Amino acid sequence: MPKITQLSQLDLTQTYSYADYLTWQLDEAIELIKGKIMLMSPAPNVKHQDISANLTTLLHNFFKHKKCRVYAAPFDVRLYDRKKSILASQDIHTVVQPDLSVICNPEVLDEQGCNGAPDWIIEILSKGNSKREMQIKYELYRESGVQEYWIVYPNDQAIHQFVLDDNGHYQLKHMYTDDDIATPHLFPELAVDLTEVFETWQK
């Protein structure tokens, strides 16, 4: 079997597994969504990177000496229906790279990343993010049981907070903006100062 080093060697209409994904050596950043290849947005800009670094630092300091851990992209998160137990690579058809993942169950971590749903995912939007991509991620995170999902809007300096309810649906719990203090549903003792989150050199 030839080594896959270029996207042109793959059939974008075909369904692939995480086992296939692990064998590829591509320059392009991709995600696998229910077996279909999805190109990721171009490299994040300075504002995106600043926000990611600010959030990573804040969360890393908060979770230090606690059982939860925060991981920043690139970090493979394999997702599937939350009703299923941990799956083998050949049975997994979705792998994404959220900007930030908070994981409190060490059993879902392995050498490749996270095999199952993180407790909390934060996605920072870029110019390249399409509405379709946002809808797909929203549904994926809901289906797989991500308990809390934040969408960060850099240009609007806003955060939308979604929390999974008892029926497995996301509820928009809060919309934070400007100098608000955001409070994670899962970690109510954590205060996220949006002024610090959106502090960046790029205006």
Automatic annotation (TrEMBL):
UniProt keyword Nuclease present: yes
Domain Putative restriction endonuclease: 19-193
Keywords noted in UniProt: Endonuclease, Hydrolase, Nuclease
A molecular-function term among this protein's GO annotations: endonuclease activity
Keyword 4Fe-4S: no
Protein name per Swiss-Prot or TrEMBL: Uma2 family endonuclease
Organism: Methylobacter tundripaludum
Lineage per the UniProt record: Bacteria, Pseudomonadati, Pseudomonadota, Gammaproteobacteria, Methylococcales
